Amino acid sequence: MKDVLDELAAVRRTMGRGTLPAGEAYTVELRRRYDAEVDDVWDAITDPDRLRRWLKPVTGDLRPGGTYELEGGEHGEILRCEPPRLLKVSWMFGPEADAWPGTSEVEVRLTPGGDGRTEFELIHAAVVGEPMFPTYGPGAGGVGWDIALVALAEFLSGGVSADHAEFETSLEGHEFSRRSAAAWGDAHLAAGGDPEQVAAAVRATTDFYAPDPAGRA
């Protein structure tokens, strides 16, 4: 458990605002350092065979202007691809999402950090309306990305990444999700969020990712 929580602590989280074609967006931003060369990290996030081993299987026309689909429903268009520094995609979920183009984008930036390390930055911008953001805050997407980045760390270190669904439902995964939700609450507060709304959002996010089996509040 300590190793997983150390990985959680390695991430710097911020919440901000941005602009997408569909309008004003919220952003969740995660920054951390990986002990791997930039070419290795780039390959891990773009090669289909490696991507499926820490995130999900991917199919599609995997080139700029092409489309992709992850097993589980996430899909979109490859907007920019500049090896080994920048990858940007639209990020949609569910068949109905295609009716709202330009509402969600994910951008990953890689920078060589010296000593064989890589500075990793992920920015997920989304146009989020009522009631999603007031209810869950940045943790709605942030917790999921925290789980993904831990899996990437394990993969880059030569380990075998656990299945996301299995990890999320384990006792260790629940504790990780609770702490991740609290960390996103801190980022929300730092961005000027109302303390009562932030506290409620952290509770809602925690209940979503790590529900109490006894049904206690």
The gist of it:
This protein is of the alpha+beta class and 217 residues long.
SSE series: HEEHHEEEEEEEHHHHH
- Work out the radius of gyration: 17 Å
Bin the helical content: 25-40%
Q: Report the total helices.
A: 8
CATH superfamily: START domain
Output the CATH class name.
Alpha Beta
Low-confidence stretches: none
Counted up, domains total 1
How would you sum up the major sheet? 9 strands, antiparallel
CATH architecture assignment: 2-Layer Sandwich
Mean pLDDT: 90
CATH structural fold name: Alpha-D-Glucose-1,6-Bisphosphate, Chain A, domain 4
InterPro entries: ASHA1/2-like_C (IPR013538), START-like_dom_sf (IPR023393)
Protein name: SRPBCC family protein
Family: Belongs to the AHA1 family.
Domain Activator of Hsp90 ATPase homologue 1/2-like C-terminal: 35-154
Structural overview:
The chain has 217 residues and is α+β, with helices and mostly antiparallel strands. Strands 1, 2, 3, 4, 5, 6, 7, 8 and 9 form a nine-stranded antiparallel sheet that branches. Helix 5 (139-156) packs across helix 7 and helix 7 packs antiparallel against helix 8. The mean pLDDT is 90. The protein has eight helices and nine strands. The longest helix has 20 residues, at 171-190. The protein has helices spanning 2-9, 38-46, 48-51, 132-136, 139-156, 164-169, 171-190, 195-209; strands at residues 12-20, 23-34, 58-60, 67-70, 74-82, 86-90, 92-93, 104-114, 117-126. The protein has a single domain (2-209), classed as START domain (Alpha-D-Glucose-1,6-Bisphosphate, Chain A, domain 4), CATH 3.30.530.
